[in-house]
Amino acid sequence: MRGLAGKRVVVTGGTSGIGAATAQRFRDEGCEVVVLARTPGPGVIRCDVGDRLQVDAAFEQVGDLDVVVNNAGVSVRSPAADISQDQWDQVLTTNLSGAFWVAQAAARRMLLGAGGVILNTASTNALVGYRYYADYNAAKAGLVALTKSLALEWAPTVRVNAVCPGYVLTPMQEAEYTPEMLVEVNSRIPLMRHATPEELAGLFAYLASDEAAYFTGSVIVMDGGETAGSMVSGGGPGA
Fold it and tell me: Does the first or last residue of the chain, that is N or C, have fewer Cβ atoms within 10 Å of its Cβ?
């Protein structure tokens, strides 16, 4: 992608699934990648994004940067009537508050420098109702609204966009399926399959590149046609 080589990129939740694929894609583009995650690993800065103090400390280690992919997230399947305060707080704190703390810490540096790009991983759950994920749906819908607000405030120096994946066949998602379940879910998607993490990673790379210089405040849906019509039937989170 044009304009990515040599960029300094931060990916949250970058040790597995979409985050790991995205971190690798940026490395392949010649970027320097820093991963923020709760799980340790080579090149990983330990950070719970829901804790503002940890986020600020992590970005002190990161220093200057050009791109952030706000990918850390959690989901818990639960009937709305049974959601506890602890569960609600956990999901909203990580998926919405955490994304804001990361974006804020990044933008403070970008606005003083040469600018940058912030990309938020939302979900098709932000756009339509899904049963049993009320807390997750609320957090991702909030993230879409937050994306638009930050794009307006930080333009033209910082571009802010959101990606809404549908079903993505991460290793964690695949482990939850029987072969029959996977076939059934695929049958409800117009393109008849899940996305791969690498496909999402390619979209993030494009949006961070000079090729996408006129994108800000945008919400890009990548769901194989899932939300294009009336086939949405209350499945689990896409991201």
Answer: N
Task: Judge whether 151 and 160 are in contact, CB under 8 Å.
Answer: yes
* Secondary structure class of 45 (helix, strand, coil): strand
C-alpha triplet 168, 51, 23: angle, nearest 5°: 35
CB contact at 8 A, 109 and 59: yes
237 within a domain of the structure (yes/no): no
CA neighbor of 111 nearest in space, from 171, 155, 148: 155
- Taken in order 144, 33, 203, 228, the sign of the CA dihedral is negative
Task: Report if residue 1 sits inside a domain.
Answer: no
Cβ-defined contacts of 25-30 (< 8 Å, 24+): 25/198, 25/201, 25/202, 25/204, 25/205, 26/67, 26/201, 26/204, 26/205, 26/208, 29/1, 29/4, 29/5, 29/205, 29/209, 30/4, 30/5, 30/6
Amino acid at 137: N
Overall domain count for the chain: 1
Instruction: Chunk the chain into consecutive blocks of 10 residues (it has 239) and report each block's average pLDDT, rounded to whole numbers.
Output: 97 96 98 95 94 98 97 95 98 98 98 97 95 96 98 98 96 88 95 97 98 98 90 54
Yes or no: say if 109 and 164 are a contact pair by the CB < 8 Å rule.
no
Residues annotated as catalytic are 136
Could you tell me if residue 232 is inside a domain?
Answer: no
Range of the domain at 146: 8-222
